[in-house]
Specification:
298 residues; mainly alpha; disordered N terminus; elongated; MetI-like fold
């Protein structure tokens, strides 16, 4: 049997991206998380070019309308369409979550790499500097939320990923790459990071969920998005005084926050379950035991 050409060789332990996504989709939590994330992205993209009404248009004649046509989710105390506000707020939420993810990714990879490939005093000095930046009061805005959550979870991602990087660093294929002349940077990008990517992605999904909560909470308190910016937290702040009178108006932004955070958390759980061989085998054994019909012995 002739061996396959070099271009067709694949390591069995490294499945393709399509197979990996298929594993995540096969997990119920992963399937729910993917649907939620894709739905939020679609809503944000649609709201960027179209909403049923102008989210900031005030119409005092339409104050506190119940859900009906054409205001499918009703209106608030200023006559603004709640559906348009929720759709526009999805863009703000997506911007904060994606921005925090980018900051956490860059910082987490940098700190984890320093921790795995450099001496102890270098990584501890950098960690102390990051802790000082996190503790420093920077004021209140969307950028503050992005940087605060990104830096905080970047440090956390580095702490979780660094032991995995050091474990992979002593693997045979990494030592073989070093013997073949690969530099530490080449080994990092070719061997180390791809093997710790599942752990990294799980932490990143949880960071995005915290970013959504942080943006909503700080905007609710008046330290996040400005009042002129469509935000689920700002909308909750505007509607909180009317909770007992118009509860449906408060329901929609709160439900959007809950579903988004739940979807991101369950997506992280689904990725962890799909990437961990022990969890995959345990899940398969549980399914087999449920479908197995015992024989009747007469």
């Amino acid at each position: 049997m002739t061996p396959p050409p070099d271009g067709d060789r694949r390591t069995p332990q490294q499945p393709t991206r399509a197979r990996w996504l298929g594993r995540v989709w096969a997990v119920p939590t992963g399937r729910f998380g993917i649907c939620v994330v894709v739905g939020i992205i679609l809503v944000a993209l649609i709201a960027w070019i179209w909403t049923p009404f102008d989210p900031q248009q005030v119409n005092v004649q339409d104050r506190w309308l119940p859900p009906s046509w054409p205001h499918l989710l009703g209106t608030d105390g200023a006559g603004r369409d709640i559906l348009s506000l929720v759709m526009a707020g999805a863009g703000t939420t997506l911007w904060v979550a994606a921005g925090s993810a980018v900051v956490a990714t860059v910082l987490g990879i940098a700190l984890a790499s320093l921790g795995a490939l450099t001496t102890r005093w270098v990584r501890e000095s950098v960690a102390v500097l990051i802790d000082i930046l996190v503790a420093f009061p920077w004021g209140g805005s969307l950028w503050v939320v992005i940087w605060s959550v990104g830096i905080g979870f970047g440090v956390n991602i580095a702490r979780v990923t660094r032991p995995e990087l050091r474990r992979v660093l002593h693997s045979d294929f990494v030592l073989a790459g070093t013997a073949a002349g690969l530099s530490p940077t080449q080994n990092l990008w070719r061997h180390l990071l791809p093997n710790v990517a599942p752990v990294f992605i799980v932490q990143l999904s949880w960071a995005m969920a915290v970013a959504v909560l942080a943006e909503a909470g700080l905007s609710y308190l008046g330290f996040g998005a400005p009042v002129t910016e469509p935000s689920w937290g700002v909308l909750l702040q505007d509607l909180q005084d009317y909770l007992t009178v118009y509860p449906l108006a408060v329901l929609w932004p709160g439900l959007a926050i809950t579903v988004t955070v739940l979807g991101l958390n369950l997506l992280g759980d689904g990725i962890r379950e799909a990437s961990d061989p022990t969890l995959v085998s345990r899940t398969g054994a549980a399914r087999a035991s449920r479908t197995h019909m015992p024989e009747v012995v007469s």
